[in-house]
Write a structure and sequence with these properties.
Distance between the termini: 22 Å
Shape: globular
Number of helices: 2
Order of helices and strands: EHEEHEEE
Number of strands: 6
CATH superfamily of the domain at 5-79: RRM (RNA recognition motif) domain
Radius of gyration: 19 Å
Largest sheet: 4 strands, antiparallel
């Protein structure tokens, strides 16, 4: 494992960043704990990213916490994967094509560097 950043999923929606940080400190130094929140409501999206001090500490955290029951839910903890460049593509136009130029639609997708997560 070469990455010290972890994905933590299946979190209770009541979990706080400080609780996550305190939990992962049991495996070593936590340099960042970022709980992902809905932009509109500010509520937890049920997952987070935790960055450990070293790759070895990250590996230890995976061993300690993957599958561990917290708040009645089994955590998913694994090495965070970088976002794919280009992001997701847009959807198709859908519907039936018409001789007068129907179709189209789609668009969107692409990478949004202004979004951290």
């Amino acid at each position: 494992m070469s990455n010290s950043k972890l994905y933590v999923g299946n979190l209770s929606f009541e979990t706080l960043e400080i609780e996550l940080e305190d939990l992962f400190k049991q495996a070593g130094t936590v340099t960042e704990a970022a709980l992902m929140q809905d932009r509109m409501t500010g509520k937890s999206r049920g997952f987070a990213f935790v960055t450990m001090g070293t790759a070895d500490e990250a590996k230890k955290a995976i061993e300690m916490f993957n599958g561990k029951q917290i708040g009645g839910r089994a955590l998913t903890v694994n090495e965070a994967r970088p976002r794919e460049a280009g992001g997701g593509g847009g959807g198709g136009g859908g519907g039936q094509r018409r001789s007068f130029g129907g179709g189209g639609g789609g668009g969107g997708g692409g990478r949004r560097d202004y979004q951290r997560y």
